[in-house]
Design a protein that fits this description.
The chain has a three-stranded antiparallel sheet with strand order 1-3-2, covered by helices on one side. Helix content is 23%, strand content 24%. It has one domain. It is elongated, with a radius of gyration of 14 Å. By secondary structure, the chain is an alpha+beta fold.
Length: 70
Amino acid sequence: MIKSNGIIFADNILYKGYVLSDYNKHKQRTAVRNLREYIKEVSENPNLETEILEVGDGLAVSRIKENKKV
């Protein structure tokens, strides 16, 4: 639903460092698992260019690649 060159911002993507850590409290496990899945998806999706900025609780910036007509 986003046009070519559209941008997606995802704030608090590192969730107090829990996403990068091996230790997670029981009540944060679902949130951490979902954030890890989101990061994996936007990082591996060939239609996106994604940067994860380790500022504050983290910020993911993804740009939809331009659709090239052949």
